[in-house]
Amino acid sequence: MSSSIPARVRFAPSPTGHLHLGGARTALYDYLLARQTGGQFILRIEDTDRKRLVPGAEEEIMAGLRWLGLQWDEGPDIGGPYGPYRQSERKELYQEYARQLIESGNAFYCFCTPERLERVRTEQQKNKIIPHYDGTCRNIDPDEALRRVKAGEPHVIRFKSPQEGSITVKDVLRGEITVENRTIDDYILVKSDGLALYHLAAMVDDHLMKITHVIRGSEWLPTLPLHSHIHRALGWDEPQWVHLSVFLKPTGKGKMSKREAADLIKDGHSIFVKDFNDLGYLPESVVNWITLMGWSYDDHTEFFSLPDLVEKFSLDRLNPSPAAINFTKLDHFNGLHIRDLQVTDFSRRIKPFFVSAGLNPDDATLLKIAPIIQERVATLDEAPEIAGFFFKPTVNPTAEELTAKGLTAAQSADVARKCLSILESVTEMTPEAAEPPMRALVEELGLSAGQVFGIVRTAVTGQRVSPPLFESMEIIGKTEVLKRMRLAISLLDAAG
RNA sequence: GCCCCCAUUGUCUAGUGGCCUAGGACGUGGCCCUCUCAAGGCCAAAACUCGGGUUCGAAUCCCGAUGGGGGCACCA
Hints:
Shape: elongated
Number of domains: 4
Largest sheet: 3 strands, antiparallel
Strand content: 5-15%
CATH superfamily of the largest domain: HUPs
Helix content: 40-55%
Mean pLDDT: 94
Strand order of the largest sheet: 3-4-7
Radius of gyration: 32 Å
CATH architecture of the largest domain: 3-Layer(aba) Sandwich
C-alpha cells in the first residue's frame, strides 16, 4: 500500500489518435492509485492544439478506457468540481497565470517571427550547437514590451529560464534528477494565437485540479525541470512526479513506428486498445498483461484481476527500465483469464465471434459447447474455428481427411461402417453410452483409438482437430451424427 | 551534436551487501497424461554488458566505458 492519503490523479490524453497500450497502462496505474487510496481518477482532454485534433478521438479514448474497466470520476462527459475538463475550454485560465509569470519576471513577451527563429535554428544546427532560443527578447524593457503587445504586435510568451545554477527534481522511480538551468530553453508558454501550450496548461490544470501524482510517460523527463520551475515560479507545491518507462517493439529495439503498429493487425495483434476486443482478447487479460510491463508484485505472482490490483498496486514497485511488448505473453494471460471465466460468461462472450463468422448460434447450444472449448482457445476468435461445426447444417470433409493414418480409404470406410452400426444401436448419444462400445470396437479391430475415433471425428465435425469427440456428438445429437457418418462412408466408398 | 533516463536468461521480471551454486513467468526442448487439439504435471537449456574502485564480502554501492531508450516545435 503506497499511500493512505486519497490521491487525485489524472489521465490527460490529447485527442490526436488512438488510445494505445502505453496510454492504457498510464491510465490503469492512475486508476489503481485513485481506487486504492479512495481518491479520484480524472480524465482531462488536452486539446490545445486545434490543428492536430482528430474527430472522434476523444470518444474512442473514452470507449477504450471503459472497455478496460477504468471508469473515471471526473471528466469532460460527466463534469466534476474542477471543470471544465477540456483544455480548449480553459483558455482564459492559462492567460491569467501567464500574466502572473510575466509580472514576477519569470516569463517575457517575445516578438520574434517564426521565420527568424527558423533561421536561428538552422544556423545553430549548422554550427553543431543545441538548438535553443537565442534570447533576443529576453531583456526588452517590460513597459516597452507591454506597449508593443497593446499595439497589436504578434507575440508569444516564453518562460524566462534561469541562466545560472541548477535545479533538482524528484521522480518517484528514479530519485533526484539534477540539471543545469542553462540547458533549459526559454520554452514558449503561450502561442501567438493566445492558446497555452502543454508546458503551461498542464501545470496550471494539475495545480487547479489538485492533482497529487502526475503519472506520465518518460518522454516528459527532459522537460520535467521546466515544469518544476513553473510550479515554483507560481509559488505552488509540486505533485509527485512519476515517469513511466516506454514500451518498445517486441524486438526491444526502439519504439514502434506508425507503420509497424498498423502492420501488427495482420498477425492478430495490435497496440491500439480499440482492436483487442475484435482480436478475441479479454479486457481482463490486457489489464493483467500491461500491468506487469513495468510493475511487479513479488517474485512469483502474475495472475491478477482489476480488483486484485486495486488492492496490491504500489508505486514503489514500478520499474524504470523500458519494456519490450510481448504478445505471446498476452496470449498466455488471455488463456488464463478465459479459463477463469464462469461458463455462462464465457458462452456469452464467444457468441459475437460465431455471429461474425456467419453462423447462427443459439444460446442453449452455446452454453453446452462452452465447457468443452473453454480451455482450448487462446483467443475468443478461435471459438468458431474450433466449434463452428456445431452450427453448420453440413460438414464436408474430403475422403483424404477421412482416411485414418495407416489405413486405406476402403479400410477406413469399413471401420466407419462398424462405428455407424454401434452409434445406431446406442440408446442415447452420450459419452457414457457411446464410448464403451466404441472402445470395444477399437480393441476388436486391433487399431488405435486415434485411428478409429479420428475417422468419426472427421466425419462428424469435418475437422481433424476438435473438442472431445463423445461430448461433441452428444451436443450434435444422434440423428445428425448418423447422418454425417453415412455421408462420410459414401465419400470414403467413392474414393476407395 | 547536446541534454536526460535505463542496463539480470530471447522476452517480462524478483533481487536493495552475505539467505544467489541468481527465484518466478512467457517462449523453447524433452517426458507424462491422452480419442485429436488444448489444459495440466514433471524435467532441461538459458542471464547479472564490460572495466575500474569501495568492502572481509557486490547482481546489489561509486566512477568510467559500452549498449539501449527518450528529448531537443508557436505537438503532446
